[in-house]
């Protein structure tokens, strides 16, 4: 049995919104009114997930997790809507903010993409929600172009990964807030910009350490049992050790790899020894679903395709296991690689500032990663702007995949479409990338910063869906590294000082010094899961092939199923080649659950009778 989805919708303060309110409140477990008495926020969310402050006719709701108390929220609200973005920028945690002042509504998610907003027209007014399926009728038509984008590996980024897959539902960009007027109209207002990278690593480390500690505290302060991955890597180990300081009860969790060459287990054993008061759950490899298990079975109610569908069953199994141990909130280390690894990207800026230093470090990277000499020189010398890079990427969707042996310092993800993508799919993706090039602006001040922001957002959009899986088992998923304040602290640091080929995640190592003991900081390896991938593929190949029969994606003109079947049954020399297969089958699985014949408008979820206030 799956738990019903958590969701909310936001309505403008106008009589014209009454029909939309009636439709949405029929499915809501909670209703929070405007000062006028009209419905403002309706939906269903978990205990302790929402805070509400009221100051006369003005009100501010925080839905999510934060260390901010009522006094802080009241102060933020006192400045009115014109200053609310500035006054709430430094709040720790991960959450949605919704304010109502003088009949206007202001709402935002997180800059990381973990918390998102969508909008659509319902009975003549614009309505916001945190899920696309809260705004769309069952059977609403899908957007083939948005689905074509989801075939690309890696995701194209540049905001394109945020495109809603249902027609008529639009995404609010992660760095923008939505403002609902008293007439039911909507406008977008930018609330987040990347900080300038002006701090030295030495000056910025304390802020990174504080941001991470606050991010964890935002999850443990509600007390009760908190779970945390403990894989043996720096990211999850840091979170577990931080959580142990403030959690009432900590349950650590890891599943063993089927690959005996993966040394995560040895490092996880060392980390567990540092947490004698915690409950430690270690699941043997033969007791947890393999990768690609039941990939042809329907997923719980997800509002978008799941790109990491290979581990869906393993994720659901883990969430149910955690729930059985009393865990209602679980943390993982997603975002640690996105923020702290891959520092060679800073070589491009270093080459402009200190050419000889950059050449020395580039030579070291070249020796370690086998970069070709001339390709490295051309990449370092390239000074083309963001728009040209995006247009160039639109024309390279069929190019060979970028590997660690390719020096990459560009603005734009090297997105590639698989050979089973049709010409129509290519044109959809390339067309949207070219259109974005005409108006898109960089997300940050430097190439390296921009790439990190885009990588974080791509990860955030995926984690949002993984959280939906966890919630279907009654557990909330938290990713402290993807909190906006953590991202801001990292982006504030001059990364050219971090591109050292001989140091692994140097910024995280310094920020966690005193939390991670020296013996764990000596690790120089990283768990690799090709063995799990190929074992799962061989065991569940028939389930993958089942999804290639009568494909909805093929009906939409996006995929050649014969070419996809050939790829599934053919030889694979690296597990990275499975990513495109997984992305395609994730989209197909979602379509099979979602794309039904057109039906009359009805509430998005089964009706609930309980009406309550925010808690």
Structural class: alpha+beta
Q: Give the beta-strand count.
A: 17
Number of helices: 22
The CATH architecture classification of the largest domain is: 3-Layer(aba) Sandwich
The global form is globular
Mean pLDDT: 91
Uncertain runs with pLDDT below 50, 5 residues or more? 596-615
- Please give the CATH class of the largest domain: Alpha Beta
How would you classify the quaternary structure? single chain
Cα-to-Cα separation, first versus last residue: 26 Å
Query: Which percent range describes the beta-strand content?
Result: 5-15%
CATH H-level homologous superfamily name of the largest domain: HUPs
The percent range for helix content is 25-40%
Write the layout of secondary structure elements.
Blueprint: E1 7-10, H1 18-25, E2 30-33, E3 39-44, E4 50-55, E5 58-65, H2 70-78, H3 81-88, E6 94-101, E7 104-108, E8 118-122, E9 125-129, H4 144-149, E10 170-171, E11 176-180, E12 186-190, H5 201-220, E13 225-229, H6 234-246, E14 249-255, H7 264-273, E15 279-283, H8 312-324, E16 329-331, H9 336-340, H10 347-353, H11 355-369, H12 373-381, H13 386-394, H14 423-439, H15 447-472, E17 476-478, H16 484-491, H17 506-511, H18 518-521, H19 530-546, H20 552-555, H21 561-569, H22 578-594
Parallel strand pairs: 13-14, 13-16, 14-15, 16-17
Antiparallel strand pairs: 1-3, 1-9, 2-3, 4-5, 5-6, 6-7, 7-11, 8-9, 8-10, 11-12
Helix pairs in contact: 2-3, 5-6, 5-16, 8-15, 10-11, 13-14
Comma- or semicolon-separated keywords:
single chain, 615 residues, alpha+beta, Glutamine Phosphoribosylpyrophosphate, subunit 1, domain 1, Rossmann fold, 4 domains, six-stranded antiparallel sheet, 17 strands, 14% strand
């Amino acid at each position: 049995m799956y738990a019903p989805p958590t969701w909310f919708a936001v309505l403008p303060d106008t009589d014209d919104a009454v029909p939309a309110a009636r439709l949405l409140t029929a499915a809501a477990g909670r209703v929070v009114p405007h000062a006028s008495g009209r419905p403002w926020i309706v939906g269903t969310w978990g205990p302790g997930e929402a805070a509400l402050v009221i100051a006369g006719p003005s009100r501010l709701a925080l839905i999510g997790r934060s260390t901010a108390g009522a006094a802080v929220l009241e102060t933020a609200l006192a400045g009115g809507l014109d200053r609310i973005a500035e006054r709430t920028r430094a709040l720790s945690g991960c959450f949605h903010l919704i304010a109502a002042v003088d009949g206007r509504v202001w709402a935002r998610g997180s800059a990381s993409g973990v918390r998102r907003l969508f909008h659509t027209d319902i009975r003549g007014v614009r309505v916001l929600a945190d899920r696309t399926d809260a705004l769309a009728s069952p059977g609403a038509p899908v957007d083939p172009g948005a689905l074509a984008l989801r075939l690309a590996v890696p995701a194209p980024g540049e905001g394109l990964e945020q495109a809603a897959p249902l027609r008529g539902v639009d995404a609010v960009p992660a760095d923008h807030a939505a403002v609902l007027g008293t007439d039911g109209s909507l406008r977008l207002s930018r609330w987040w910009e990347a900080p300038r990278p002006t701090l030295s690593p030495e000056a910025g480390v304390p802020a990174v350490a504080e941001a991470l500690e606050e991010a964890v505290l935002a999850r443990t302060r509600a007390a009760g049992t908190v779970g945390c991955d403990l894989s043996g890597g720096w990211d999850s180990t840091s979170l577990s050790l931080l959580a142990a300081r403030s959690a009432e009860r900590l349950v650590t969790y890891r599943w063993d790899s089927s690959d005996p060459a993966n040394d995560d287990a040895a490092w996880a054993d060392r980390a567990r020894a540092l947490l004698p008061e915690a409950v430690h759950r270690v699941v043997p490899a033969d007791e947890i679903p393999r990768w690609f298990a039941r990939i042809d079975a329907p997923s719980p109610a997800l509002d978008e395709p799941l790109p990491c569908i290979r581990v869906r069953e393993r994720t659901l199994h883990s969430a149910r296991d955690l729930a059985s141990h009393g865990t209602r909130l679980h943390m993982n280390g997603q975002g640690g690689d996105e923020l702290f690894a891959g520092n060679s990207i800073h070589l491009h800026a270093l080459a402009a500032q200190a050419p000889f230093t950059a050449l020395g470090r580039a030579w070291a990277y070249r020796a370690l990663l086998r970069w070709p000499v001339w390709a490295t020189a051309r990449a370092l010398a390239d000074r083309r702007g963001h728009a040209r890079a995006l247009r160039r990427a639109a024309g390279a969707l069929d190019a060979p995949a970028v590997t660690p042996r390719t020096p990459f310092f560009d603005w734009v993800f090297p997105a590639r479409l698989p050979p089973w993508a049709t010409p129509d799919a290519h044109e959809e993706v390339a067309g949207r990338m070219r259109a974005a090039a005409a108006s898109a602006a960089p997300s940050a001040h430097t190439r390296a910063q921009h790439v990190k922001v885009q990588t974080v957002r791509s990860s955030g959009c995926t984690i949002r869906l993984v959280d939906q899986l966890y919630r279907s088992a009654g557990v909330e998923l938290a990713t402290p590294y993807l909190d906006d304040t953590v991202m801001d602290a990292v982006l504030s640091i001059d990364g050219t000082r971090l591109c050292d080929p001989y140091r692994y995640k140097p910024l995280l190592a310094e920020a966690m010094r005193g939390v991670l003991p020296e013996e764990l900081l000596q690790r120089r390896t990283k768990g690799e899961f090709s063995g799990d991938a190929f074992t799962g593929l061989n065991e569940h190949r028939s389930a993958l092939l089942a999804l290639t029969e009568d494909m909805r994606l093929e009906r939409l003109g996006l995929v050649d199923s014969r070419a996809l079947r050939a790829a599934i049954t053919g030889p694979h020399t690296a597990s990275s080649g499975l990513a495109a297969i997984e992305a395609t089958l994730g989209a197909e699985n979602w379509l099979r659950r979602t794309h039904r014949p057109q039906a009359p408008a009805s509430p998005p979820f089964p009706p609930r009778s309980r009406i309550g206030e925010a808690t």
